[in-house]
Specification:
Radius of gyration: 20 Å
CATH class of the largest domain: Alpha Beta
Distance between the termini: 24 Å
CATH topology of the largest domain: Rossmann fold
Number of strands: 15
CATH superfamily of the largest domain: NAD(P)-binding Rossmann-like Domain
Largest sheet: 9 strands, mixed
Strand content: 15-25%
Bound molecules: NADPH dihydro-nicotinamide-adenine-dinucleotide phosphate
Length: about 375
Amino acid sequence: MADLDRRDLLIGLSGLAAAASAGACRAAEPPARKIGYAIVGLGYYATRIIMPQFANCRFSRLAALVSGDPAKARTLAAQYDVPERSLYSYQTFDRIRDNPDVDVVYVILPNSMHAEYTIRAAQAGKHVVTEKPMSVSVAEAEAMIAACSKAGKKLAVGYRSHFQPHNLHAIRLVRDGAIGRPRYLLAEHGFVQGDPTKWRLKKALAGGGSLMDMGVYSVQAARYLTGEEPVAVTARSTTDRKDPRFAEVEDLSAWTLEFPSGAINHGMSSYSSNHNFVRLTGDKGRIELEPATPYEGQTLSLTRDGRKEQLTPPPGPAVNQFVGQLDHMAECILNDRQPLISGEMGLQDMRIVDAIYRSAAGGGTIRL
Ligand code: NDP
């Protein structure tokens, strides 16, 4: 019971709370104005996944674009009805301070640029959403939180799974005791990298390899499903340095997280094999999410008394996880609440990632 109480208090419920608050907003009147987002970095995730979702948002709208490619920015601006005066380059970015249409800056740049643009956005008086991983070091994550706090601005990390119905339902099942006391969690995320020239394989831009990019999904799942914070980390990493893809960053990371309740998590990330799977086993059953965290197509099963049942979660309050995330931040700004996918949540992930790297480098078991 103590464990269940603990889960109620920790991040496992942030998604449920987010869902509940977004649900409450859905019933309410539309706001007098939508919150204006500036998107920084017009790459795949920004243009193919996030920007089309503004059409489905109730509280958010696309207000400005920041890009190193003016022609691309102009084409997208025409498509999304963003005025010329709201287009910026990385050099002119700080002028966003004078743009009243922009409430929040969404940083969708290579990982090592998240800290700089979060801090510059806060200094320009804007709220910030930054993509995962929050940063490439603990120190950067702390500096980002400090900058937003000093400016009196909100900071969120793009942890979309906290708004995804299968993940939310899994959290709810664990909280309600459907699998009994959580004992063992397996979390795997990875894909096969191709082109060795891509920024994800460059240490200076990516900060690291599969752990930075995909491992954070495994770490997040362990935290939000158990509802606990790890107290110890032991890790191993294996990389073929002769493979041109892995000259600078690691390929396979595997780690053990120990939780205060005695639950254990084996997590992994890979850039040379495909994985997207989470299984949490308790003393009365288990839940499985496979795939667990893609853009769409999640499945959830519950196994109890030897019977495996596929579950269809109730629909989330938002159209999808991306809209849920965008509108949650907008609602936080409109109602002056703190985002549930907070900078502190991202910072804790960076502490765990840092401990995994240190342990894998020969540091033994790292106590957190
Ligand atoms: P892309 O390579 O597709 O886009 C990155 C964009 O950043 C580029 O198009 C470019 O935009 C800009 N950029 C500025 N400087 C550089 C540079 N030196 N090298 C490369 N790009 C640069 O990356 P993704 O969209 O896949 O990823 C961006 C971020 O989003 C990452 O942090 C990633 O982890 C995160 N992400 C999150 C996902 C999620 O589900 N939450 C999914 C995918 C990515 P421009 O030409 O406009 O200047």
